[in-house]
Specification:
Blueprint: H1 4-23, H2 28-35, H3 39-51, E1 55-58, E2 75-78, E3 84-90, E4 94-101, E5 106-113, H4 120-137, E6 145-152, H5 176-184, E7 188-192, H6 193-204, E8 213-218, E9 222-228, E10 231-232, H7 263-266, H8 269-276, H9 286-294, H10 298-322, E11 326-330, H11 337-350, H12 353-357, E12 360-363, H13 370-384
Parallel strand pairs: 3-6, 6-7, 8-11, 11-12
Antiparallel strand pairs: 1-2, 3-4, 4-5, 8-9, 9-10
The chain binds zinc ion (ZN).
Zinc ion is lined by residues 245, 255, 257, 259, 262, 264.
C-alpha cells in the first residue's frame, strides 16, 4: 500500500516536472523558489528523478549564458525522449507546421499561404507535404514522428471529430484528423484553432498561472477558447466559444455560417482591411495596419477601436456569465493596442462592474504562432498519456 509520505513525494515530484516542462531548464535554487518546497526536499527529489532518467543535469539554458566570468550554473532539465511530434495550424488563408522534440522545443517551422476554405483535400495534401519538409529540416524521419496535433478554423463536432457546419465550405463532413492520418500514417489529434490558442497561452504565454480565461482569436475569422478551472471548456458537442457568431445585427450581412449579422461579419481581418483600404493610397496588409496603429494613424485607430468595442460588447455578456480573470487577445490582429483598448472600454461599459473589475485584458504573448504551439502541446499531451 502506498503510504501518505510516498504520495506526497509523488505530488512533489510532479510539481518539479511540471515546472520544468513550463519553464525549461532551471537551477535547484530556482526550483526551490518556484515550488515552495525546501532546499533539502528539492535536492532529494531531483536525485530521484535523475536516477529514474526523468531529468538530466545540463549547463545549457537554451539561451546564451550572461553570467560574465566563471562557469555557467548547473541546471536541471527534463530529459528528452527520442523522436518528435508535429503541430499543424490550418487557418482560413494559411498552413503553418512546426516539428518539435518530445518536450516541445520547436526544431523546424514552415508557413505557407494557402486558400484553405476552398478545398479541404488540397489544404490537407499541402499540410502533409509541409510536415515531411519540416521533419527533414529538423533532421528527423517520418518514422521518428510520434503524433501530430492539428487545428482547423471551424468547430469540430466532439463525437465525430468532423466539421458539420458550412463555415468551411470545402470541408463539409470532412474529418480532418482522419484525413491527415491517412496521409502521414501517424496518430493525429484535431481541435478547433481558438481552443489550441487558449491552451498555448495558458501553458507558455500570457495566461500562465491563470485558471479562468477567455482567449479571443481575431484573424481571418473570430473565435474564442474558454478555460474554466484550468481546463479547456469544449461544451457538450465541442463547439463552445463561437463568439464570432453572436448576432449583433439581425438584418446585417449574411455570414458564412448561414445566419445574418454575426459579429464576424463586422470584425475579421479581411473585413477591416476592406473598410480601411479606400482611404489609403498604398495597398494595406495586416502588418501595415498594425504599424499604422502604433504610429497613431487616426483612421486605423478608429476602425480598430470600433472593432474592439464590438468584440468587447459580446465579451461583456460572456464575462457576466463566466467571471474570468483574464481575456487574452490573439490572432494576427491581437497585438493591436487600439483593438485591446476598444475591448476594455466596452467590457467596462457593459459588464457588471464587479465582473469588469476582476478582469484584465492583455495581448497574447505568442502572436499568430499560438495555434501551432498549442497543436504541438496537444500532440505531446496525447503521446505521454
Ligand atoms: Zn455566423
Amino acid at each position: 500500500m502506498t503510504s501518505s509520505l510516498e504520495r506526497l513525494r509523488d505530488t512533489n515530484r510532479r510539481s518539479i516536472t511540471s515546472l520544468l516542462a513550463a519553464e525549461g531548464p532551471m537551477s535547484r535554487a530556482d526550483l526551490v523558489r518556484g515550488t515552495g518546497l525546501s532546499r533539502t526536499t528539492v535536492s532529494s527529489l531531483v536525485g530521484d528523478l535523475i536516477s529514474t532518467g526523468h531529468v538530466v543535469e545540463t549547463t545549457d539554458r537554451g539561451r546564451p549564458h550572461k553570467g560574465g566570468s566563471g562557469r555557467p550554473p548547473l541546471l536541471v532539465a527534463l530529459s528528452t525522449p527520442a523522436g518528435g511530434v508535429a503541430g499543424v495550424d490550418i487557418g482560413h488563408g494559411h498552413v503553418r507546421v512546426a516539428v518539435a522534440d518530445r518536450v516541445g522545443t520547436v526544431l523546424a517551422e514552415e508557413t505557407a499561404e494557402v486558400d484553405v476554405d476552398e478545398d479541404g483535400a488540397v489544404a490537407l495534401d499541402r499540410a502533409a507535404r509541409m510536415v515531411r519538409q519540416a521533419l527533414q529540416a529538423a533532421g528527423l524521419e517520418l518514422s521518428d514522428l510520434h503524433a501530430v496535433g492539428m487545428c482547423v478554423p471551424a468547430p469540430l463536432d466532439r463525437r465525430s471529430a468532423s466539421i458539420r457546419t458550412g463555415i468551411l465550405p470545402g470541408w463539409r463532413e470532412l474529418t480532418p484528423g482522419d484525413e491527415l492520418h491517412r496521409r502521414l500514417g501517424v496518430p493525429v489529434f484535431a481541435d478547433n484553432d481558438a481552443n489550441l490558442g487558449a491552451l498555448a497561452e495558458l501553458g507558455q504565454g500570457a495566461a500562465r498561472g491563470s485558471s479562468d480565461l477567455v482567449y479571443v482569436k481575431v484573424a481571418s475569422g473570430l473565435g474564442a477558447g474558454i478555460v474554466l478551472g484550468g481546463r479547456l471548456h469544449r461544451g457538450a458537442s465541442g463547439i463552445a466559444g463561437e463568439l464570432g457568431h453572436v448576432q449583433v445585427d439581425e438584418d446585417g450581412q449574411v455570414c458564412r455560417c448561414g445566419n445574418r449579422g454575426c459579429l464576424e461579419t463586422l470584425v475579421s481581418a479581411p473585413r477591416l482591411l476592406a473598410l480601411l483600404q479606400p482611404a489609403y493610397d498604398v495597398p494595406l496588409s495586416i502588418e501595415r495596419i498594425l504599424a499604422l496603429d502604433d504610429d497613431g494613424d487616426a483612421g486605423v485607430r478608429r476602425v480598430l477601436s470600433d472593432a474592439g468595442r464590438a468584440v468587447g460588447r459580446a465579451l461583456a455578456d460572456l464575462c457576466n456569465n463566466l467571471n474570468p480573470e483574464l481575456v487574452v487577445v490573439g490572432g494576427s490582429l491581437g497585438a493591436s493596442t487600439s483593438l485591446g483598448e476598444g475591448i476594455r472600454a466596452a467590457v467596462d461599459r457593459f459588464a457588471q462592474p464587479d465582473t469588469a473589475a476582476a478582469l484584465t485584458v492583455v495581448s497574447g504573448d505568442l502572436g499568430d504562432r499560438a495555434e501551432v504551439v498549442g497543436a504541438v502541446s496537444l500532440a505531446i499531451a496525447r503521446v505521454s498519456v
